[in-house]
Specification:
Keywords: Glutamine amidotransferase, Glycosyltransferase, Transferase. With 632 residues, this protein is an alpha+beta fold. The protein is built from 24 helices and 20 strands. It folds into two domains: 225 residues, 4-Layer Sandwich (Glutamine Phosphoribosylpyrophosphate, subunit 1, domain 1), CATH 3.60.20.10; 303 residues, Rossmann fold, CATH 3.40.50.2020. Helices cover 40% and strands 17% of the residues. A seven-stranded antiparallel beta sheet has the order 3-2-4-1-10-9-11, covered by helices on one side. A six-stranded antiparallel beta sheet has the order 5-6-7-8-12-13, covered by helices on one side.
């Protein structure tokens, strides 16, 4: 993707099911868990580089021994800094190798020599990069069963509503943020469940010490999650560790945010990305399971694992945009889906170049569009193969070897045109300092395009704002002097904001929205803009369940082709010489390529939760009133 869009986050949870001595004996090191956690996080670095954090919990330590360790970083290389810190704690005993290699000594004396780990990678979706916002976050207590370590991949649309409910309970939260609100909401019901069990066991005549042990064995994580999440409106994969050793990962009922797990007799692993688990543990795809929407994977302190329904699953609306761009393309299904997205664009591309395939060069915008590019080339190859068959059949018995050579030699002209010249993390770097670099991110391969003769088709996974396209890519491609540049988006036009964890909440940022607004103004239909604004204002104070998405009315007067044409006009640099055309994936094509992941609200405005409609209406009001602020 050429535009900077920040994704939600990534999680990695490990529960070692054997004592550390087992891993020392089998794998030659008690650091087996730490090493696997590092790999899980490093291979998910695509999901967050604004911050990283790790927490570890040691089981069965006596009172007075520190049983929770945590380190977080918001540096430029947060994963490295976190694990450098962990390594430093281990290397303190490098001059005493026998102690350093002793699992029992490590458990009692070395930080992060633990049985349970939780790692997190953060993208900030709300502009604050301070260390306080980096997960895992903690709610500490002297009672282990009341201590919670939380990390997640989530955004709630109704955080203010949830915050107010905490106030009604008598709490005084320190911050109106998703993280604090979710942490305290869970914390309230953890305290409630603890108190309920305490009273029960006290009435049975147990001592306080006995009660603590019984609560550790009988605390209902399932009940806590059911009560705490019942009014969550958003997408989430929540991972939590309790001080006494229980752990969970809970997923929203719509399956908006992903979570996968693997389990054997040695280890339980949870991650946001399926292929990461496959690679790190060297296991086949069929061994990695999805945490089902509305369910939680619960790992008890005794090592037992259950997959429990926490909320009633709704119609599956897992995020299709995540699969198009953010997720790792090494996932078997995602790889096939991205190829299919490219292949399905073939007819529109052929029309855009007027079937001049001998005079057309095909390429892609590095790097995530590469898989869709392979699919696009496959589609063109299939078309050309059919042309060859027709030509051979038409020639019949009169065909000569020379004619046959000419027909067979025809193939797509595939070149690597755009090159990411500077090693910039353009899709995750913080906004400050980015603008001066954006024009220098890409370079081009000279000599592969015939000036004034060739069309140049380049595919990208999406066009969101179009900033980099206008300021860098189109300018540099135009230097090759193609007759026409066709920019292809493997996903449909992004028209509506996200509110479930991707930093796309301002309507005014979207090229498609700006194009629709300009078209309305140019065609004398300002009244539609005014009408939509009025309708949005009228439902500002309605319950989220009653809010309608009236912003759809901004787009309804125009066809996708008309809007694509206008986007092209708006993004075209003033000094560009080549003709320019933009081609977008259709909604039908998206669903054909990703049939099991129908969360398409970015493109259709069909939000899976009631809070989504409220967010899009608030975002439109903010746009009209000139407020550059988050809509939720």
């Amino acid at each position: 993707m050429s535009d900077q869009i920040k994704h939600e986050c990534g999680i990695a949870l490990i529960r070692l099911l054997k004592p550390l001595s087992y891993y020392q004996e089998k794998y030659g090191t008690w650091q087996y868990g730490i090493q696997k956690l590092y790999l899980l996080m490093e291979k998910q670095h695509n999901r967050g580089q604004d911050g990283a954090g790790v927490a570890g919990i040691k089981l069965n330590l006596p009172p007075g021994k520190r049983y929770i360790d945590r380190i977080r970083s918001n540096s430029a290389s947060p994963i490295k800094e976190v694990f450098d810190h962990i390594s430093a704690g281990i290397n303190r005993f490098s001059l005493e190798p026998e102690k350093q290699a002793d699992p029992n000594f490590a458990l009692h004396n070395i930080p992060f020599a633990a049985d349970l780990y939780l790692g997190h990678l953060r993208y900030g979706t709300f502009g604050n990069h301070s260390i306080e916002y980096v997960h895992p976050v903690m709610r500490e207590n002297n009672w282990k069963t009341r201590t919670l370590v939380l990390a997640g991949n989530f955004n709630m649309t109704n955080v203010v509503e949830l915050f107010n409910k905490l106030i009604e309970l008598g709490q005084h939260p320190l911050d109106v943020s998703d993280t604090v609100t979710v942490l305290e909401k869970l914390g309230h019901y953890i305290d409630d469940e603890n108190q309920l069990l305490f009273r029960q066991y006290k009435n049975e005549g147990m001592s306080n010490a006995q009660i603590s042990e019984f609560i550790q064995n009988n605390l209902s994580i399932e009940k806590v999650l059911q009560r705490a999440t019942k009014d969550f409106d958003g997408g989430y994969a929540l991972a939590g560790l309790f001080g006494h050793g229980d752990a969970f990962v809970a997923r929203d009922p719509w399956g908006i945010r992903p979570a996968f797990f693997y389990q054997d007799d040695e280890i339980v692993v949870v991650a946001s990305e399926r292929p990461v688990i496959q690679t790190v543990l060297n296991v086949p795809i069929e061994k990695v399971q999805e945490i089902k929407p509305g369910c939680a994977l619960i790992i008890r302190r005794d090592g037992s694992v259950s997959h429990n329904e926490i909320r009633v699953p709704q119609e599956r609306k897992s995020c299709s945009f995540e699969r198009i761009y953010f997720s790792r393309g090494t996932d078997s299904d995602i790889y096939k889906e991205r190829k299919k997205l490219g292949e399905l664009l073939t007819p529109a591309i052929l029309e855009a170049v007027n079937n001049e395939l001998d005079d057309t060069v095909f390429s892609f915008i590095p790097n995530t569009a590469e898989t869709a590019f392979y699919g696009m080339v496959k589609g063109v190859e299939t078309h050309m193969l059919n042309q060859k068959k027709e030509a051979i059949i038409k020639a019949g018995v009169t065909i000569t070897p020379e004619m046959l050579d000419t027909i067979i030699a025809s193939r797509p002209r595939v070149e690597k045109i755009a090159v990411k010249d500077v090693k910039l993390r353009t899709f995750i770097s913080q906004d400050s300092g980015r603008d001066d670099l954006v024009g220098h991110v890409y370079d081009v391969t000279y000599g592969a395009v015939r000036a004034g003769t060739d069309n140049l088709v380049v595919i990208d996974d999406s066009i969101v704002r179009g900033t980099t396209l206008k300021r860098s890519i189109l300018r540099i491609l135009d230097r090759l002097q193609p007759k026409k540049i066709v920019v292809v988006s493997s996903c449909p036009q992004i028209r509506y904001p996200d509110c479930y964890g991707i930093d796309m909440s301002n309507l005014g940022d979207f090229a498609a929205f700006r194009a629709a607004i300009e078209l309305l103004k140019e065609t004398g239909r300002q009244s539609i803009i005014d009408s939509v604004y009025q309708k949005c204002k009228e439902q500002q104070n309605l319950p989220k369940e009653e809010v309608m998405n009236y912003v759809k009315g901004i787009y309804s007067p125009f066809s996708p082709t008309e809007i694509a044409h206008k986007i092209g006009q708006m993004l075209r640099p003033a000094d560009m010489k080549a003709d320019l055309q933009l081609v977008f994936q259709t909604i039908e094509g998206l669903h054909a390529a990703c049939p099991n992941d129908l969360g398409d609200w970015y493109f259709t405005g069909n939000y899976p939760t009631p809070g989504g409609n409220r967010v899009v209406n608030t975002s439109f009001i903010n746009f009209i009133e000139g407020r550059k602020e988050r809509a939720y």
